[in-house]
Design brief:
- With about 250 residues, this protein is α+β, with helices and mostly antiparallel strands.
- Among the domains are: about 5-60, no CATH class; about 135-240, Phosphorylase Kinase, domain 1.
- The protein has helices at about 5-10, 20-35, 35-60, 65-110, 120-130, 135-145, and strands at about 165-170, 175-185, 185-195, 205, 215, 225-230.
- It has a six-stranded antiparallel sheet with strand order 1-2-3-6-5-4, with no helix packed on it.
- Strand 4 (about 205) and strand 5 (about 215) form a beta hairpin.
- Helix 1 crosses helix 2 (about 20-35).
Length: about 250
């Protein structure tokens, strides 16, 4: 063993060589027996350890120190348990809340979902409404949709293909407006209802030179919507209301 290794092992041999294996401890002791420099260094370190240990043993322990230390440890242990209990309580409350919400959601799904559909009720309502004026039906449906406006008197509502609905306004993606669909003898016209304040006052009454044309009905008193008619015919004579019989 060389001096560098021996001096490194000295730290593990203080104050005794219990941390060294027997082979290493024997080799260290053999080196110290034959190397005056390392032997002197080891002896000086042992003397220092002995003096320091003696001085520490002479220090008086303050009265009650042991009891104070134990009391402090007990307080800290209680704080730790209280924190653990509070954390567990929060987890328990959160779990209970989650169970409650899941239960409430299940109850809502079971009790609030619409009942099943009875087809006989559907056809019964359709037949009952068949004898009602179509204009009155259209006004009632639009009102349920939130559209409050009188219907234009320039249209024959007996030619309505179905009830009013909502659709996307051509040229304006995402903007949905109410509409009415009319038809007669393979001729169809779609009437879009657009808020009156969104239609310029000077808009032409007739637009379009291609397959489809657009006509804007004249505004009437009380109408909060303008009626834009898109059709593929030469005119809209077929869509006008019938003339009242001559007196």
């Amino acid at each position: 063993m060389d001096c560098k290794t021996a001096r490194l092992l000295l730290d593990f041999a203080r104050p005794q060589a219990h941390e060294l294996q027997a082979e290493e401890a024997g080799a260290l002791q053999s080196h110290l027996d034959h190397c005056p420099d390392c032997h002197g260094l080891a002896r000086g370190e042992r003397q220092f350890d002995e003096q320091f240990s003696k001085a520490m043993r002479q220090v008086e322990v303050p009265a009650g120190l042991r009891d104070r230390l134990l009391s402090r440890l007990e307080v800290q242990r209680g704080d730790w348990y209280r924190r653990r209990f509070a954390h567990a309580a929060r987890l328990t409350i959160a779990a209970a809340a989650a169970v409650f919400l899941l239960g409430w959601a299940g109850w809502w799904v079971i009790n609030r979902l619409p009942a099943s559909i009875d087809p006989s009720r559907v056809i019964g309502t359709v037949n009952a409404r068949a004898i009602e004026p179509k204009r009155a039906q259209a006004e009632e449906t639009l009102k349920r949709m939130g559209v409050e406006t009188p219907l234009s008197p320039n249209l024959n509502y007996n030619l309505l293909v179905g009830p009013p609905g909502m659709t996307e306004l051509p040229g304006y993606p995402g903007r949905r407006v109410p509409f009415l669909l009319f038809g007669q003898n393979h001729r169809y016209a779609c009437v879009y209802l657009v808020a009156a304040n969104q239609v310029p006052a000077d808009v032409p009454a007739f637009l379009g030179e291609g397959t489809y044309k657009l006509e804007v009905l004249p505004a009437n008193d009380g109408e909060t919507y303008r009626f834009l008619i898109v059709h593929d015919g030469d005119n809209l004579d077929w869509l006008h209301p019938p003339e009242p019989p001559a007196a």
